[in-house]
Every structure is written in C-alpha cells, then in structure tokens.
Amino acid sequence: MDSYDIVVIGGGPAGMAAAVAAREEGVEKILLIERDRELGGILQQCIHNGFGLHHFKEDLTGPEFSERYIRRMEELEIPCKLDTTVLEITAGREILYINAREGVTKISAGAIILAMGCRERSRGAVNIPGSRPAGVFTAGTAQRLINMEGYMVGRRIMMLGTGDIGLIMARRLTLEGAKVIAVLARKPYPGGLMRNVAQCLYDYDIPLMLRHTIVAIQGKDRVTGVLVADTDENSRPIPGSERLYECDTVILSVGLIPENELSLSAGVQLDPHTGGPVVDEFRQTSVAGIFACGNVVHVHDLVDFVVEESEIAGRGAAGFVLGRGEAEGAETSGTPIDLLPGEGLKYVVPQRMRGFNGEERLDLFLRVSRVYGRSAIEVRHDGDTVKRLKRLRMNPGEMERVRLNRSAIEKLTGSNLIVEAVEVDG
C-alpha cells in the first residue's frame, strides 16, 4: 500500500491552495485526488470576472484564477490523480479510491485534507409540487451546460432563489438572448451578495420578487408554466395568492450543501449549523490528522476567502506531519475554547480554538441570521467584551469576518467565546 505525507481530496481552489501551502512548508510527498477531468473545480465554469480582488489584487475570471494555482501546482511538481473518485476514508487515515487506470486502490496518509466543496440543493430538497417535465435545472448545472458544453437551457426562464450562482446565471441567460421573467426569493431579502444583485439584476432590468415562491410546476414533456404565491413572515406560501406565469424553464438557486459523506465515513463531527466539520484554528477536524477547508467546511461568498482558509489548513496539516506546533496531535494540545454563535448569528468558523495558529491573528468567519441596520459584532469571554466591530448593515447573504489579535486572546483559558450580533443606536 502506497503511503503519502499528505493527501488532499478535491482539486478545486481549496484543494490546490492547501496542497501548495503544505509544499511551501516543506512537505515533500503530497498527492491531490480529483474526480473531475481537470483541476479547477467550479471555477472552470465561472467565466465571469470578479475573482481575485482580495487575494491577487486583480480582477480575474474563474478560469484565470484557477490557472494561477494549476501553474503553481506544476511548478512545485505536486502529483494529481484526475478522473478519480474517493470511495472511503478512515479515522486511521487510509483512503480507498477508484479510477479506470488502477481500479480500486487503497493508500495511507500522514494527514488528509478534505476539500470536496459543496453540492446544490435540488427540487426534491425544497419539495416543489407538480409534474416532472424537462426544463428544471439547478443554477450550477445550467451554468456548466451553457459555459462549458455549449447548450442553451431555455428561452423563458423563471428562477427560484437568490444564491450568487443564480444571480450570475440570470445575467448570463439574458446576455444569451433568453427572457428571465423574474427572480423569486421566499424571504424579504436576497440570499446573495448585494453587488451581484445590483450588477446582475438591477443593471439588466430583471425583476426581483421578494417574499414569493413557486408552489407548483406545470407541463408534461416540457415546463409550460409555474404557479407563484406570496409568502408570509415565516416564508410559507399564502393560500389564495397563486398566479400563473408561462415559462419553458425553471432554474433553482436555493442553497448549497457541504459535501461531507467522506467526512462521516471517518467519524468526523459535523456542525449542524454549517453542515461541515467542526474545525479548530488549524482547520483540523475532531479526528486528529484530518483537516478540512473551503466550502466543505462552510459555504463561502468569495473564492479569495476560500484559498485564504485553505492555506491555513495546508500549513496546519504540514505542522501535523512534520511534528511542529500545536497542530501536532489536537487531542493533546490543552483545554480547547469553543467559539459559539450567540444572539443573531447562524454559525462561527472555526468552532474551536486549541491555543493559537502560530500567526499574529485569528480570523472568525460568521453569518448573521437576519438583516441588521446599524449594528455591531461582539466577541465575549466570561461576560467581558474581547472585540467589538461596528457595521452599518449586515445580512445573511454576506459572510462577515472578525479578526482577533494574538494579544487579545492568547491568555484566555477554560471558558467559551460567545460571538453575537447586536443593534446599536447612532
């Protein structure tokens, strides 16, 4: 059985950034496994610009961003297995994979980095009634068909959901000559970045219908129309408010789910709020030697934050296999401090702190549970405020980041950190 120092599962921006960071820390024997035919992950079908503004200080398209890391992987001579699917991983860091060249193969690793990304919620996940005709797509599927395969998905489009991929596809379909009748959102606010709402909907006069949802899809062989209803304060359809809209295509952008079946097979603890693993500041999971990064941990808005977090995981995994720092054996690194979401928050990542990540700062990523006007994010320990950041506006569609300096938290012991959102006056 072949053995590697670090095996990275997933060849998107998260996996490549983690592999590069680990190699730059001095780890020699690294293997990256990707089930698609090429590296790059979802970025290969994201031909629009807006990537790299934070990380590279340039405005790049998705393929241009991923090309930077593909070239870096080649420069560092990090081997990859493409068209290869991982079937199972174990807590003992053994990996079972399959491909057409080697068949079913088992390897072992000193550390594993999980970077499998996320998948889209489908029609079945949101329980839309009606018939099952052709013409119902998730936004990511429509994006791949149009941008990579060269197929047009429809001409009169009704879109449910305001995820970022959906907003971008509303613009893309319009540019390709389709008519996007409307973009519907069950809640009173959009779920994607406000810059995408402005650039993809408002700039192209695409109607955004808040507090609306699809309650039935009509059609036999192909979609012929949808019934749209208003929603109440609990985002439930209001009986009697249904209206029929004729269309030939329905596109769903109703959320993403971290891809964690492999994590479960290794006994990794998952956070019910994020759907991803519980991780510490090194992005190490509850199983020693297994790290996670990117959208498999929690869904990000920007790929720049994905690679930043993945580099932390790569350095953490390198520290584990090289026997450096606190990452070496999470179970022996002292009493952990849990980072807990308080009032107004959906989640906080990382969820656990075992000391410090060897750097001068620790970044917390979080999402609020509702729309806030003038507000603040507070980090509290034993009733004392460790950090307070004011915000003019916050909404669940945009991830917030709180930076804690080493001096602020290195002496904290034996108690939880509570992070919450509060309204402020003035």
TL;DR of this structure?
By secondary structure, the chain is α/β, with parallel strands linked by helices.
List keywords for this structure.
single chain, 426 residues, alpha/beta, FAD/NAD(P)-binding domain, Immunoglobulin-like, 9 helices
Describe the structure.
By secondary structure, this protein is an alpha/beta fold. Helix 5 (164-175) links the parallel strand 11 and strand 12. The protein contains nine helices and 27 strands. The chain has three domains: 1-120 and 256-333, FAD/NAD(P)-binding domain, CATH 3.50.50; 122-254, FAD/NAD(P)-binding domain (3-Layer(bba) Sandwich), CATH 3.50.50; 335-426, Sandwich (Immunoglobulin-like), CATH 2.60.40. The strands form seven sheets. Strands 1, 2, 5, 6, 7, 8 and 19 form a seven-stranded mixed beta sheet that branches. The chain has a five-stranded parallel beta sheet with strand order 10-17-11-12-13. A five-stranded mixed beta sheet has the order 22-20-27-24-25, with no helix packed on it. The chain starts with a strand and ends with a strand.
Summarize the helices and strands and which ones pair or pack.
Layout: E1 3-9, H1 13-24, E2 30-33, E3 49-51, E4 60-61, H2 62-75, E5 80-81, E6 85-89, E7 94-99, E8 103-114, E9 118-120, H3 123-126, E10 136-138, H4 139-149, E11 156-160, H5 164-175, E12 179-185, H6 194-201, E13 208-210, E14 212-219, E15 223-230, E16 243-246, E17 249-252, E18 256-258, H7 261-265, E19 290-292, H8 303-322, E20 337-341, E21 345-349, E22 352-353, E23 361-368, E24 375-381, E25 384-391, E26 400-405, H9 406-409, E27 417-423
Parallel strand pairs: 1-2, 1-8, 2-5, 8-19, 10-17, 11-12, 11-17, 12-13, 20-27
Antiparallel strand pairs: 3-4, 6-7, 7-8, 9-18, 14-15, 15-16, 20-22, 21-23, 23-26, 24-25, 24-27
Helix pairs in contact: 1-2, 1-8, 4-5, 5-6
